[in-house]
Fold this protein.
Amino acid sequence: MATREAPPPGLLDGFSAPLWERLRLDRLRPLSIVRGQHRGHDWMAIDLEHVATGLFSTGRPRTDTTTVFVVRLPRKSSGWYLPDDRITATQQVCVDDGHVYAAALGQRPRVRDWRRWLDTAIDAAEEVVRTEGQRPAADTAQAARPWNPHDQRWVLLWAVLTVPLAFMVLAVLMHAFQEWRSLGAIVWCDSRTHLGSTLRGWKAAACFGLLLLPLAGLFQLARTSVAHIHTPGFALRLNLQGVALAGVSLLALYALQKLLASASGPC
């Protein structure tokens, strides 16, 4: 029967490209290990403490513990291969030149669930042995990076940058709508100089369009953050959309200023 034991010194150094390196986990500390055999394969379960990777873990660091299931392959080989899409938000499976790894980041499955995790890791091990040297040519230069838990921090960054913009645009849009509904025109007037702009007809419609344009970009950015946060290439996609939103917002601001200037006068 497998028993829990203290990890030997230098345990983590014995792996060439383990799962915890793929996920860029920090401050690693193995707490305990369990060794055994299942379906004729040698396996090890490592309780690994590391810095948490949650959305708000950029502040005061806290720790998580992940149980990583490691299955030894029959020999070392550079031909072992698993596609990057095996590393997802709910389950991470990968291979290096001597071992297959399976885990769920931040989770320590109960012992009664270990058989399922060992079966997952061993199924992957048997797959890489069966497909040794058959790595698809197109996959050698994959454009999309595998899912990475640190990508979640980009959501916080863009939220800090765009939430104030969203409130500002909504406030201006509400003011414009109230002016148009009560006066039939959008009026901005300086009470000290009695100068401003009055937008009617197509100019009022253009003003609404220019205000809605960044809101559409903000909606798309929020949709990507929610619907695609756990997909490969998420950070690249989110950052490209964020940069595009910034560019569109600046162009909309410039066009709005020109529109107001074209309708300026006493008010």
About this structure: The chain has a mean pLDDT of 87. The first strand starts at residue 4 and ends at 5. The first helix runs from residue 19 to 22.
